[in-house]
Amino acid sequence: MSELATLARPYAAAVFKRAKETGATEKWSESLAFMSAVLSDSEISALFDNPKVSKQDISDFMLDICQGHVDEESSNFLKLLVHNNRLVLISTIFNLFEAYKADHEGYVEVEVTTAYEFSEETRLNFAATLEKTLGKKIHMNVILDKSLIGGVLVRAGDKVIDGSIRGQLQHMQKTLQ
Predict the structure, then answer these.
(1) Whole-model pTM above 0.85?
(2) Contact predicate 164/150, CB 8 Å
(3) What are residue 127's phi and psi, to 5 degrees?
(4) What is the strand order of the sheet 151-156 is part of?
(5) Which of 19, 35, 124, 174 has its CA 20 to 30 A from that of 97?
(6) Count of CB atoms situated within 10 Å of the CB of 60
(7) Measuring CA to CA, which residue among 74, 71, 64 is closest to residue 94?
């Protein structure tokens, strides 16, 4: 994963810089999300691993699929990725782009995994606490996972806060060994 991020970072930074220059961060976000969704399909990505399929065929195929969802700049970017054999990076580029966008707009995407659903009051209180802790506004996505037993697991960028019972038990197990 870190190799992909290293390769994708210059592309994501360039796209984000261009998006800011043209005032089109939302448009780029939507285009990258669509391209990423298309390439997440295993049948489509398998086609690109076939050495008998030319770069031109891949480029034409992707442009046909993305028609109406990407503009000329996004199409050129897609062609560049195909030409440089970097199409596999599109989902990583999208994730990095979204992180740059969030940082620029002053918020952070937070994924909260919990064993039990939050009440609305608990959700608001927890969000306020996270905003104080992280020093930024947050966009919180809550995921239910009964295997946590209890507590929460918070991911905000590279920060991970493991307040789950499962995490505490695993830590205790490592300490005892």
Answers:
(1) no
(2) yes
(3) -65, -40
(4) 137-144, 107-114, 151-156, 159-164
(5) 124
(6) 13
(7) 74
